[in-house]
Amino acid sequence: MATHSMTSLMKSDIYIDGHWIPTDSRFSVTNPATGETITEVADADETIAERAVEAAHQALPSWRAKTPRERGDLLRKWYQAILSNKQALAELMSAEQGKPIAEAAGEVEYGASFIDWFAGEAERVYGDVLPMTAADKRSWIIKQPIGVCAAITPWNFPNAMITRKVAPALAAGCTMVVKPPQLTPLSALAIAQLASEVGIPDGVLNIVPSTDSKNVGKVLTTHPFIRKFTFTGSTEVGKILTKQCADTVKKVSMELGGNAPFLVFDDADLDLAVEQLIACKFRNAGQTCVSANRVIVQESVVDEFINKLKPAVERLKVGPGDAEDVDFGPLIDQDAITKVQRLVTTAQSDGAKLVTGGKQLTDLGDLYFAATILRDVTPKMDVVQEEIFGPVVAISTFADEEEGVAMANDTDFGLAAYFCAGDVARIFRVSEQLQCGMVGINAGAISHAYNAFGGVKQSGVGREGSKYGLEEYMEAKTVVLGGLA
Questions:
Q1: In 298-414, which residue ranges form alpha helices assigned H by DSSP?
Q2: Which of 256, 285, 320 finishes a domain?
Q3: Residue 255 annotated as catalytic
Q4: Which domain holds residue 156?
Q5: What is the mean pLDDT of residues 29-49?
Q6: What predicted TM-score, i.e. pTM, was given to this entire model?
Q7: DSSP character string of 103-169
Q8: Residues 111 and 132 in one domain
Q9: Separation between Cα atoms, residue 286 and residue 292, nearest integer Å
Q10: How confident is the model at residue 280 (pLDDT cuts 50, 70, 90)?
Q11: What positions does the domain Aldehyde dehydrogenase occupy (predicted)?
Q12: CA pair distance 183, 452, nearest whole angstrom
């Protein structure tokens, strides 16, 4: 098994049918920590995207014909190759995305865990024997791979957002085309290189980086060979892509925007609540879809909570991803900085009070923003209505449990929700009343390969991870056998 450096894993061409394809048109990938160009990447157009779909279509019959054990064995080899190259992959991810190398290494492990999990799940696809409808008939249900799949993935988790889509697809017997994000394509190309090295057949996995999101996305959502489309990103874009899939009636899974509440009740362990909020809010500089967006604290404990939270937030170290002991790095681009600064500024104009932070850290570079706490935030403020996607804690208050739950549910979104409480009866009540796909109770980290990841309302459809993740890439077929009398 090859052991790579960051440089030897840095691929910059399009990966189709086991081949690296250069193009005359290329785009720059920059390091958000420094603004420096890392490399120039081949830029796929509609024709190349169609070529990738054709390759996946041609590879489908032989991949589908492999036994679940054979597919699982190859996936495990891929898993081991990723772990063996964890440091190189982490350095590459940190360079293109900005997160600290240690956090990037954690993402590599997390992303690889989906490959390992679904390698095992490939052998646990069960059908059903149905009740007899007549003496001369027998009926049963079998599960089969849906076919060629396509994915569009986001920049905030350049490894894990791909593996948790690709792993179940390949385990099920599907082939796949992935359009990685323009801002962070290098991690996708690197893991494709490792897939090739361990023997995953040509055409089973194809990677098409592109700046032409609209037209390449149109190919992936309308091509008749593609039977399943999966997307992680904004609700606005997800709606457009879902509509485009409708004409060919593709199966879709959508992991879309969030506006996660983090409730702190008066019976909570406040030290634990602070610890878990820090873990939830500041991972990846707050640039996660399940990050706590609205921190809603019972008014009787809000002052004590803020007094504990403020020094913990001020201890966080901000800096480039390759620096020592950094807690979070830069935001991804200037648009992200502009948005966070606008939300903080308008919140203060509307009456919120700044507890700490609230400014760019220009001594570090153009894209760094201080860990920030705002209090006295009200539900109508933009910082509550919009997904912050930055290192800002926006604190509102509630009087009693009924009001707290109502405030938490007062959103069009329902991806994740969190709350801290001690009373067991309250824990059961609130967890059942929150309108979301995932709940963290006294826990700010809730993602795992074993867990079903996904949302309700306008946060999407479908689930990733867990046994349910494999179902997204399979079809149930009823078989009826007659003439048995």
A1: 302-314, 334-349, 382-385, 401-409
A2: 256
A3: yes
A4: 14-256
A5: 97
A6: 0.96
A7: HHHHHHHHHHHHHHHHHHHTT----EEPPPSSTT-EEEEEEEE--EEEEE--SSSTTHHHHHHHHHH
A8: yes
A9: 8
A10: very high
A11: 20-479
A12: 27
Average pLDDT in the chain: 97
pLDDT above 70: percentage of residues in the chain: 100
Contacts by residues 235-241 (CB-CB < 8 Å, ≥ 24 positions apart):
235/413, 235/458, 235/459, 235/460, 238/460, 241/152, 241/217
Report the alpha-carbon distance of residue 468 to residue 470 in Å, rounded.
5
Same domain? 296 vs 433: yes
Q: What's the rounded Cα separation, in Å, for the pair 254 and 455?
A: 9
Residue 356 placed within a domain: yes
Write the CA distances from 476 to 146, 150, 271, 326, 463, integer angstroms: 9, 20, 48, 48, 17
Give the pLDDT band of residue 278 (cuts 50, 70, 90): very high
196 and 318 co-located in one domain = no
Angle at 348 between CA 346 and CA 352, to 5 degrees: 125
**pLDDT-derived band of residue 356, with 50, 70 and 90 as boundaries?**
very high
Ramachandran class of 192: left when φ > 0, alpha when ψ lies in -120 to 50, beta otherwise: alpha
Task: List the catalytic residue out of 50, 255, 387, 464.
Answer: 255
**β-strand pairing of 14-16 with 19-21:** antiparallel
Question: What are the Cα distances from residue 278, in Å, to 216, 284, 285, 307?
Answer: 38, 11, 11, 14
CB atoms within 10 A of CB 284: 22
Mean pLDDT of 382-395: 97
CA–CA dist 33, 35 (Å, integer): 6
What's the longest Cα–Cα distance across the chain?
A: 84
User: CA separation (Å) from 431 to 28, 47, 442, 460?
Assistant: 45, 48, 11, 20
Q: Is residue 464 part of a domain?
A: no
CA distance 291 to 285: 10
Query: What amino acid is encoded at 225 in this protein?
Result: F
Strands 460-461 and 251-255: antiparallel
What CATH number is attached to the domain comprising 28?
3.40.605.10
